[in-house]
Amino acid sequence: MSQRSILSFFGGGDELKRKAEGNSESCISAKNKKYDECKRKRTFIDGWKDQFPWVAYNDTAKVMKCTICSKYPNIHACNRKRTFIDGCSNFRIEYLKSHDTSDAHLECMSYERDAQRRSTASGSCDVTTPLSGPTCSTDNVSPIVKALQNSDKQTMQKLEKLFITAFHVAYRGKPLSDFEFNLDLLDCVGVDIGSKYRNIAGAREFIKAIACSLQKEFIPELKKARFVTILSDGSTDSAILEQETVFMRYVSHGQPVSFHAGTVPLEHCHADEVLDGIRKAVESVDICFDDLLSTTEASGPSLVSVNFDGAAVMLGSKGGVAAKICKQAKHVVPVHCVAHKLELAVLDAVKHLPSLSNFEDVLKQVFKFYHYSPKMRRELKTVSDIFNTDLANLSDVKQVRWLASKIRAVRALKISFHSILNHFESVAAGRSDQSAKCQGWLRKMKTVSFVKTMCILLDILPILTEVSLVFQKEDLLIIEVPSAIEGLVMKLLNCKIDPVGAGESMEYFSKMYNHEKSSFDGVKLNGVCPPVIFKDDTFLISLVDGIITYLDKRFSCFKQKPLKHFSVFDFTEWPTQREPLSVYGSTDLSELMEHFSFLHICKLVELMLVVSPGTSICERMFSSMNLVKTHHRTALHQKTLCHTLTIMTHGSKKLADFDPRPAIMEWLHNTPGSRHILSLAKEAKPEPVPMLGPCSSKCVD
Q: Are 685 and 151 spatial neighbours (Cβ–Cβ below 8 Å)?
């Protein structure tokens, strides 16, 4: 047996194998060491500057950089390589060729050519623009450079058309799929917009850029403001998600401005969750919520008031959102929305009037009768034409929140009163399923009480509606509320004291009602028809007195500290005599200065402008949200919803007034991802061309 076999038998083969591998590794290491000693060290070659005019070599750092890309570092998005901006130490020509044909470099070249073209047009050798550094003029430009300059202009024009289309889709609350359809329409009429970003993803990016550019118009002013009021309200969207919308009111150039901070989805509707949602919305616009609660101006604007609806979760005295905020900042003034206060005061007043409840029940039943039956609407139209009577549109009567909706329903009933009665008589005479209903409604509508109530409401509701619309104004001031309520009370008392002279409908009833013949405007009335004297009418007196009583109760906070002290800024309340005027308001000013802890009257004036009395802008936001997030778009992204609502709130009302350029710059600089702007001008990438040299009398082609 050989020695190898014996060693293998006793386990010695592994040792020989390890010795052989060690000898092999030592040989490879020696070869690598010899190669490292003999290999050529790569350095920068000056001849590369002729082939690539944009390259520059830093002898100190031993790196090469791109002079063009270094001027526009923001153009390079986060997912692009920044090798030739930070410095490349790998001196290989392949790296230069790769950078020369990259999208990022070609995009920077596009901006550089545009800057040079502007410099040439102005005849200046030192022009600085937001997208460019110093440029120089040139007299001799090659045809291919001119072609690329024209392509930049065409690219911007196409981007403007794309952004205007996206703005139109968002401002009108249309689905994002309409963006593609509108672009196809532009193609059909011969408008060239290229082939890139013509999809829903592109529309979403454009809408985001437009919303961000609109926000950036408000945020600098908001951060410079002294005081801020937070307006917030909640609603449920079509996806059964609780949405909390937040506005911030501040003063800009002497005028109050309401800025949409955000719309935040809530998991729960308790006070802590709502407060956390408000905090998220405020901090989304780069403002610290805790700094708002501070009274020091160094930390930015201070929160002086919060304006919510009357829900217990918002204005509860112990555990509400306003109470939690006031615990951290005692100077904050909670305000209940005055438009909601007015509605609640009217609802409280009519609870104890059964005749008004009966009138409203009949009104709803009649409107539903026509709303859900096209056949009945056709018959009503036919009867109206036969008898030559007026007819108004009778829509569905739902639970309304504003008085303006109620007056429209009563007016429609008054206009169509004769047509409805004639149609009910026609249906009641037949043997259909609706005959009994129409007979019952006829008995109720042909009574003195029903007709009298209708005429009284036609005179009372317009007075309430006028004030309700005033309270829904966005720029309403806190000092305007007491005078508006006082004017409302005076008009109501006028209707009570002199109803025939103050109300047109009550005057019309007095002329057309004949208690002896039991008729009103040619309509034979049922039951007892006593004489009606509105001045002594129990229903009118109870209605007016009830409304005034609950108005005083609901708006009593404007007669308490600190809101009552703001009346010092209402010049209509100032005395006309010299002596009373000389001391007028000193106590009110002292109380306000003590409450808000500062001693400057100019600050008090600004603070008075900031305090918001109503949240109607939040209600309008929910109306916009219902247009955007319908039952067919329940999966709409939350960010897309917020961006769309911002555009609908702060966007230009006329399409011709919308400037897409700030949004385009926002999209190019601050949105992550690649930007194929060159492909909008040409589907193929342009050939690389030599860049213009430094400022001199001659330029290189």
A: no
Tokens of 450: 């029903």
Task: Return the structure tokens found at 274.
Answer: 């709502």
Mean pLDDT across the chain: 83
Output phi, psi for 530, to 5 deg: -75, 165
Q: What is the DSSP letter of 252?
A: E
DSSP element (H, E) containing 179? helix 177-188
Q: Tell me, what DSSP letter sits at residue 392?
A: -
Rounded to whole angstroms, the Cα distance separating 78 from 436 reads 74
Q: Which two tokens stand for residue 696?
A: 């001199």
51 contacts 690 by C-beta, under 8 angstroms: no
List of long-range contacts for 517-520, beta carbons under 8 Å, 24+ apart: 520/448, 520/451
The one-letter amino acid code at 673 reads G
DSSP bridge partners of 259: 248
CA-based end-to-end distance of the chain: 85
Peptide bond between residue 562 and the one before it cis (omega within 30 degrees of 0)? yes
Sequence-distant (≥ 6) Cβ neighbours of residue 338 within 8 angstroms: 471, 476, 481, 555, 613, 614
Q: How far apart are CA 74 and CA 675, in angstroms?
A: 12
CA distance 286 to 627: 28
Query: Beta strands of 536-656 (E only): which ranges?
Result: none
Q: For residue 513, which amino acid is it?
A: Y
| φ, ψ for residue 332, nearest 5 deg | -70, 135
Closest by CA position to 109, among listed 50, 51, 54, 150 = 54
Q: What is the pLDDT of residue 685?
A: 39
20-34, 190-204, 228-242, 489-503: range with lowest mean pLDDT: 20-34
User: Using CA atoms, how far apart are residues 550 and 555, in angstroms rounded to an integer?
Assistant: 8
Instruction: Give the torsion sign (CA, 503, 508, 511, 516).
Output: negative
Contact between 246 and 263 under an 8 Å Cβ cutoff? The reply is yes
What the block records as the tokens of 157 is 């024009």
Chain centroid to Cα 429, Å, comes to: 55
* Mean pLDDT, range 662-667, rounded to an integer: 90
3-state secondary structure of 333: strand
Structure tokens at 162: 């794309």
- CA nearest 617: which of 500, 471, 493, 435? 471
- Separation CA 701–CA 699 (nearest Å): 6
Structure tokens at 144: 């291919």
What tokens were used for 580?
Answer: 């009373």
- Angle ∠(166,167,169) on CA atoms, nearest 5: 65
% the chain with pLDDT above 90: 50
User: Taking phi first (over 0 means left), then psi (-120 to 50 degrees means alpha), and beta for anything else, what does residue 527 get?
Assistant: left
Asked if 335 and 306 count as a contact pair (C-beta separation under 8 A), the reply is: yes
Is residue 630 classed exposed, middle or buried when 0-12, 13-18 and 19+ CB atoms within 10 A define those classes? middle
Question: Beta 227-236 vs 519-520: how paired, if at all?
Answer: unpaired
3-class secondary structure, 308: strand
Pairing, β 519-520 against β 513-514: antiparallel
Q: What is the pLDDT of residue 131?
A: 39
657-660 long-range CB contacts below 8 Å, 24 or more apart?
Answer: 658/164, 658/167, 660/159, 660/160, 660/163, 660/164, 660/167, 660/210
Render pLDDT for 313-354 as a digit per residue (tens, 0 to 9).
999 988 999 999 999 999 999 999 999 999 999 989 988 888
In sequence order, what are the residues at sequence separation of 6 or more whose Cβ sits closer than 8 angstroms to the Cβ of residue 444? 358, 362, 450
Tokens standing for 354? Answer: 């059964």
**What are the two backbone dihedrals, phi and then psi, of residue 634, each rounded to the nearest 5 degrees?**
-70, -20
Q: Which residue has the tokens 């090659």?
A: 142
Q: How far is CA 73 from CA 6, 113, 624, in A?
A: 72, 16, 39
